[in-house]
């Protein structure tokens, strides 16, 4: 199975405390170089616009080609300063229009670079305080914004990455079910979910259950892997904490026949990103191999009886032999 | 506005530690007496079967009539020992059939007692461990069970009360959006949501947003009030902790034109239930009065600009004058 | 290494929904029989008083002897109806005195049955609402109650099992550090902590760090194992969710030279308790064996550099070979 | 009562998504100007070093004097890139020495500017993954680092601001009790706690209880106010969500005789900081006035009986008249 990674894994990470960054500034090109140097990735998820206006699409393509990297998706940066108060739901129609414009541009870039889909991560579309927004309006704009872009490009696939919160304390695209319901209401066929294992965990979902639901509705566009403490999007390396749930997630992907590349979404604040990627992929490889050891008939029998203990014994045997 | 309460508020409460109960055993009839003695309720939510086979529907009706209490809803006890491993999703078809049977019986009782709707709280339909169930199967049975009952009684309304967890660590009917999506898939018109403010809080929703969504889809059946620490269904008295969110919830109900009675869902483990009900209703009355002080045009303007600070100032003024 | 279990693992479990119990009523004697039938336990943690006044200490001893079971600890039931509003901190001095009296009785029973220590789990000592108690008073009574009992029996060891909440929404003995600080203030030498892995997890501690701290201060009395989703005391089987943290916990115990038996604290609501115990012990045995594979020098080097990735690789290798 | 604010409230805020900042870059001097322009502050909490090496202490003093601002505390920036892997606990002794050096420098600056105390917020001292650090070593270095600085300046007061997590997933100075225990072990008299209401909330403490504990031990150095959703350090405006707990906190401060200025710790990502400060102070003024309406004898009686309902009624009356 092939793997991809978000280009941000290799970029400079800042937060509100280390405002000088956890490492030096890194250009889009250098980040692609770094992604290539892992020797393990077939593609990347690229934030658009590029890190500097001096960089052209051809420069990006050249860097990708050098390492044989495919563009899995283009992700417009609808969460930077301009969109701090919202992208598709910003109170100012000019900013909403700018978000749509950036989305269209991203579609063009995606076409030029041969990306599989365009990803929206509407991390500023939401609110922070009670009474701050009109919820019906927020929903309407969320659906019209993305729905409108998708309707204009019926040949392109779009994926929405939901998350409960951060940077807003409440995001509109919050959970798998809330997002699937909103996508149903959009009335377009070419929009689905990007299901991030970590987002699912801290949204109090069971990731394998959310995966099953999204796939069943034909709305699964992409899958991202990482780990966290169930309360925040820590973006730790894969398997650092939730080995059983990661195993179940990989097993479920396999049973659903999902054969698209799996993506890594890590924030290695204090770690070497190349090593973080390699270690995460080693863990995924290992757990996928263990998932294949699961005795399907026996597992199905345990599940048919909702037998938690039998299921845990089967898991323990598959993991530890 | 009229108020109702769950009959359990007045019953004996047990938990896994005080297995001898936080007070003495109380019959359905005595609990109705207690509800009536509050002098503040127009109706009750009754668990069925009654506390003892010796009690007949006529006894219940007599007790209700004595206090002028209406039956807001009948709630079948699909969470007791027989259904510990599931009601509509129990692995054993005989138990699933028993759940359906109890649901039909509850419809008959609801008809006889003139209840407004039949409520399902499928608190045992879910799982506790990863790998324990087949998620697609769990969903299928959940929808078929309730959907089948609803299709058989097209003249009756049904409400599903969702909750993230407890007593299972994961419930199928977990959030507002997950439940609305599942109800859409059922293909029946007479099923909707019972939105419990506290369940919404600890499902990491904003209750007023969930309310807006359910109402907009024509799926709001009933509303329950209580409070908690956002992590568990503590069922504290109304307004004990979340005054601003409760205000927003009541304001939203008012704006949506919701004029059905509001229900209390309290577990006064160590408190007098009559006093807990009166105090909660006093707080609701007070906050409804404060909600009516909100200057609608000014609030709409603040919201139109997503102006959190202006909105908080408006709230502070309405609350504190 | 030897293992013990709480006798409640084998008893009838109730909760506020399945008030008729997840299984039939089970006497202290029958629960001991059940514990013995696991074939894997060297001892038990016994709640006192026994399930019925008809049962005498000699009956208990006979049942224990039959299965070669040791009494690891006596745990007075200071959380049942009488103590619903507090045991050592109840507002009524008569109830506080009753808690002390029951504690003294438990010491006598512990002496008679040869228990290693007396355990307090003050699950009703706390509060539920803001403004409900005088915090300084709550602290004073908590310390005086347990401290007074301990001072009266300087030859006996006492362990306090802390927990963040449940059944109160806030417990006084909440975290490892809060409890260690309070024990320091008690001024007695014979009181320490019972560290429950699950309680530590959902108190937002790292269990291995809490263990290190308690041991370093000479205050570690006993250790209990289980698992949960980090938000509530789910008491799932060992290793069901947190394999890495359980491994770290067992490794830390080993490095600290802890050779007392490890105790299981499970609530197998819907599972066979004998099987739940055997499976949990199999997992512990397996993880203890994997912990011994950890290359100590290499791990120390990774830790000396705070090298998270190296540490995770070492863990992965020890777990999966 | 006087009020202060962290200077960061008025600075540029970045996060890992809006890496171009939620507003333009702002110098220390401009931030002081902004603080002064609120017209409501008596002092500030200043991060050191200043925003640029071109700014001298005299420039800072001049800006402060212009607005009559006092320096409440100097907070060394032991959380920027250099200290990303730790300050007092960094694995490299050279970096640990640099943290100590910056602390000493901060003491000198504090002396020159007449600050009341020096604040440590060791947000990088902790870890992110299980097995990453030696917990005993982490504790030793944490205590030696701060304890050593404090011992060198016995005439200066030091305050430690604890927080459960962020930016590390686990911080050493995590809760009030853990920090008080560690301070006890330091063996110095001039170190105490800076208790942030929001940090206390999301550490699952009750802020008023933590306050009582710290004050009782003579370890309360300063108090900061803000609000959040109990899961993360959202730094919302005061009273936005937790009116009752804020009231209890202010009431407790009053009863303890705390007359030092109260500090604001806000991150107004999308709001005007001047307005956010004014609104927060208006809320504090209002709630302090309401706190003074609490009938002390009646409240004491309710508390003496742990009467939650009576206490809530008293609170409702004080708040709403």
UniProtKB/TrEMBL annotation, chains A, B, C, D:
Mind listing the UniProt keywords for this protein, alphabetically?
Carbohydrate metabolism, Cytoplasm, Isomerase, Metal-binding
Q: Which residues form a coiled coil?
A: none
The UniProt entry, under PANTHER family, shows: HYDROXYPYRUVATE ISOMERASE
- What is the organism field in this record? Sphaerisporangium rufum
Q: Which SUPFAM superfamilies match?
A: Xylose isomerase-like
Give an example GO molecular function.
xylose isomerase activity
Q: Would you say which domain of life the source belongs to?
A: Bacteria
The answer to whether the entry has keyword Isomerase is yes
Segments passing through the bilayer:
none
> This protein is called what?
Xylose isomerase
Q: Name one GO biological process term.
A: carbohydrate metabolic process
Domain spans labelled Xylose isomerase-like TIM barrel: 46-284
Q: Where in the cell is it found?
A: Cytoplasm
Q: Say if the entry is tagged with keyword Isomerase.
A: yes
